[in-house]
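Thread: "does anyone have the structure for this chain?"

Original post by V.I.:
We have the sequence but no experimental structure in hand. Need at least a predicted one for the grant figures.
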Amino acid sequence: MKRWAGGIHGFALGVVLAAGSPSAAAANPGNGLIGAVPLPALDGSLADGTTSFSNGAIAYRPAQLPDRPASVLVLLHGAGEPAGAMIGQLRQQADRFGLVLLAVQSAGPTWDLVASLAASGDPIGLKLRRPPRFGRDPQRIDRAMAQLFGLIAVDRSRIAIAGFSDGASTALSIGLANPQLFSGVIAMSPGLVLLPPTGVMRQRIVITHGHQDRVLPFAVSKRDIAGLIERAGYRPSFIAFDGDHRIDRSSLEQGLAILFPGAEGQRALHPNPPPAH
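Reply from O.Q.:
Generated one for you, tokens below.
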């Protein structure tokens, strides 16, 4: 069986990732699984504003949060960007939706899932000696989430992961591999996806992409990535926007309304973005 889809710098590629059982996360970080588990209700010692964690991760807590366990959005940056850039991009949405943000820093200049392509043979000619694979980055995400879970009570049903560009490819692949942890995923302009052998079809999946994207093709994202996910049995929402390779604020907020139904501030948003076709 081969299930694959993706694109990088205008070229299509892809593979299937055999992720295994979620309980194997700590034993085998190369499978992309995350072992962090939210703790029972805490008094909470995460300060308002930004808090620096180990390995360059940054948490952001809005000054005003609902009086209940927190909704959490894990953020994965684009290639060459610092984790803090994602906090800056989504701080306003975190305040509006009442979300705690956790931006993780990749070990290298980009996420190892994407970087592994350079050592996999000829991605342009699709002559790969081995599929793209995870390295140290899932462990970094795991540790950052464990730190956050030790500081604030979290609603286990409202934890999602989001990313932009290379971070979108990684967020989509890790999110699908960890349905026991992530209720939803927002992939903003992804270039590839690795599907686990099994998944939870009720996961909320949102893909956004600009029609004029010259870095990672719109057509590959909609036709191949969203199409593969849909054929696997999921029901992704694909939100197209008139723009280039960037985070589109309106598309992002539509995605957040899907991932966090009932959150503060979403009443004015379009409630039902069209699904991928």
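V.I.: this helps a lot. Residues 1-5, 7-29, 122-127, 266-277 have pLDDT under 50 and may be disordered.
O.Q.: and Residues 83-97 form the longest helix (15 residues).
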